[in-house]
Amino acid sequence: xxxxxxxxxxxxxxxxxxxxxxxxxxxxxxxxxxxxxxxxxxxxxxxxxxxxxxxxxxxxxxxxxxxxxxxxxxxxxxxxxxxxxxxxxxxxxxxxxxxxxxxxxxxxxxxxxxxxxx
Length: 118
Description:
Elements: H1 12-21, H2 27-38, H3 52-61, E1 68-74, E2 79-87, E3 90-97, E4 102-105
Antiparallel strand pairs: 1-2, 2-3, 3-4
Helix pairs in contact: 1-2
């Protein structure tokens, strides 16, 4: 049996491809991206802008793992930087500015960044 893809390890384009290959409209990839990478949600049931039928299908066809923090550094300017392990071999950089508590990933709004060394 082929292992289910882990959505947390996919970049936006890969997520679109995975959905399209299953006949799911690609606009749902952006919704999933926001839930996973912007809001940190790893439970399909909490993704309330997706239909119940789609959430059930996603549960059946994919996995969604919570990332593990592999590095946590505080910069002199107050920026806190994390490296998160999403799946084997894929790392994602996240920064948090303590002055205004806004979070951003290593590539802004463009999706997970696969960093070397994973």
